Amino acid sequence: MYEYIKGTVEFIGPEYVVVEAGDIGYQLYTPNPFSFSPHEQKPLKVYTYQHVREDMISLYGFLTMEEKLLFMKLLNVTGIGPKGALAILGSGDVSGVIHAIEEENEAFLVKFPGVGKKTARQMILDLKGKLQDVVPDFFPNLFQPEKEDTLSSDHFLNEAILALKALGYSDRELKKVEPKLRNEPGKTSDEYIKRGLQLLLNT
């Protein structure tokens, strides 16, 4: 089991990042790949979780230990797999998720990809009152990317749309929010992802 990997970010894609450490490139699936800054000279510590299935071994990467712990808590809920847990964490509104669990707000939880009423109820039953020690007050502000002014808004928006697809949202759902996102130029990929998720969760 890998606790964390310390290295440089060499690739960022819609679903995962590649962190090079000791001349090995580790493919890490992460809630929001565009929250990582590429090609930083200073090594970055990424907390990892290894998920093993009969046909696959995958590594998941997180910028904080708290995010990793919440991911593991979500995996313990029947009906939520790694992809579903990443979609929930990728919203950037973790405090909203926790509030929904504590307030038993199923209508909010079922807006995430792959979360139906049964799974939402299970999340509440399994996690209500059990997350206080996992998520600190600053957790909603986890993603603080640097501004990237050298590329166009269209480039960042297209990256964000690909990332939202990777989280499980359909083309039909994304077509509803894409025009609204295009009316908000000047955002980074990470900011478009968070804004897109806000719009998707409010539809």
TrEMBL record:
State the compartments where it is located: Cytoplasm
InterPro entries this protein is in? Answer: DNA_helicase_Holl-junc_RuvA_I, Hlx-hairpin-Hlx_DNA-bd_motif, NA-bd_OB-fold, RuvA, RuvA_2-like, RuvA_C, RuvA_C_sf
Q: Domain III: where is this region?
A: 157-203
Q: Name one GO cellular component term.
A: cytoplasm
Q: What is its main location?
A: cytoplasm
**What CDD domains is this protein classified in?**
UBA_RuvA_C (cd14332)
- Residue ranges of every copy of the Helix-hairpin-helix DNA-binding motif class domain listed in the record: 72-91, 107-126
State the UniProt keywords alphabetically: ATP-binding, Cytoplasm, DNA damage, DNA recombination, DNA repair, DNA-binding, Helicase, Hydrolase, Nucleotide-binding
State the domain notes: Has three domains with a flexible linker between the domains II and III and assumes an 'L' shape. Domain III is highly mobile and contacts RuvB.
- Protein name stated in the entry: Holliday junction branch migration complex subunit RuvA
Query: Which species?
Result: Bacillus coahuilensis p1.1.43
Classification of source organism: Bacteria, Bacillati, Bacillota, Bacilli, Bacillales
Designated gene of the protein: ruvA
